[in-house]
Amino acid sequence: MNPLRNQNINYRKGWFFVTFQVAHNKTALGVVADKKLTLNALGRMVDENLRKLGALFPELVIDTAIVMPNHVHFVVKIESAEHDLSWFIGRFKSFTANQYQKMAKAGECVDIGPSLWQGSYYDNLVSSHDELENIRRYILRNPERWEDDRFGPVTANVFGNVELLNGSLAAFVASDTRDNWRAEKPHLRSVRELLGREPIGREAPLVSTFTSFEEQGALARRLSERLPFIWVDPAGIKANLPAAVRAACAEGWGLVISPVPSGTGVNKQRAVWCNRWVLKVALRIYVGSIKKGGTLETLLSPARRPGTHDIGNPRHGGRGPRYWESSA
Asked: Using CA atoms, how far apart are residues 170 and 195, in angstroms rounded to an integer?
């Protein structure tokens, strides 16, 4: 018997508020940015199957539900079922876990390991209509509350020329690792060679978190050619910034900004927050190698617009570059 279950509750009949987490609390099902939820392919699969439960099991009514980036909330009504709540949740988690493994094997989502879900779940017997209404509101407000009190403005901490923020910004985003990038583009000797082939506006400040291998290469090229840049660091402005970055900031063609003070450290949701800001402020977006099913791919889905440019990435439609003329 699961120790989280209350022995005094009949789990075969009643209203229940249920929550379960992604394994290791991974942000694997989507992202929340600007208080809006965007599910990725894995999150959409989970959401679709959650909403099908009532059709599969007539004794269940899924009342209110939401799939969040790292957890699932729902209210379910069980009407004199042969099986209890744990049985239904077990079937759902097992089926979606199998689907996840197929998707991960096919490269359709991020591989977070052998398990999609944490082993157990949390439940609460809903005992009144007022409690039910409160829980419904709580579930529906999850995306809007996701970032509450978590992050300050991305420009809360600055070092360098803040006037660069007033320019027509170009963003560069990429998320694949060094090994994946080299495997995908073995004919290219360096990121600088990749970026050097494309007309990233030389006069426009290039804004990025400069976290991934390709993004770091973009920063190195900017520094070597004395081109303006804005480094959005989700971990806080480093006390030991590279000398070249410090010099660029002192000379007025570099800027480092962060929503948190120096030494705060890495936080996944803050990184999402910063990448969303990068995509939001840029007039043009340049996209390097993106991890399939990852957070950045999910963020890019609603951000695709005129002015987006995939830099010769086979995962985005072929070997050659593609252009969209900016409407701005």
From this structure: 13
Residue 97 CA from chain centroid, whole number: 20
CA-based radius of gyration for the chain: 23
CA distance 229 to 198: 17
pLDDT digits (tens, 9 = 90+) for 1-38: 344 466 778 999 999 999 888 988 788 898 887 778 89
pLDDT digits (tens, 9 = 90+) for 135-180: 898 899 888 877 654 556 788 888 988 888 877 788 888 887 666 5
For the chain, percent of residues with pLDDT exceeding 90: 34
Domains of the chain: 14-145 (3.30.70.1290), 157-316 (3.40.50.450)
How far apart CA 136 and CA 130 sit, in angstroms, is 10
* DSSP 8-class letter at 117: B
Q: Average pLDDT, stretch 33-53?
A: 90
Here the tokens at position 14 are 């009643």
Q: Is 156 helix (H, G, I), strand (E, B) or coil?
A: coil
Write out the H or E segment, with its range, that includes residue 65: strand 60-67
- At 318 the three-state DSSP class reads coil
pLDDT of residue 62: 93
Place of tokens 């529906």: 140
Segment (H or E) for 46? helix 41-51
Q: 80: Cβ–Cβ under 8 A, 6 or more apart, which residues? A: 12, 13, 59
Q: What is the pLDDT of residue 320?
A: 30
CA-nearest of 198, 265, 185, 192 to 223 is: 192
| Cα gap 250→72, rounded to integer Å | 47
The count of other CB atoms within 10 Å of the CB of residue 212 is 25
33 three-state secondary structure = strand
Whole-number Å distance between alpha carbons of 210 and 152: 20
Instruction: Give yes or no for residue 328 having a pLDDT over 60.
Output: no
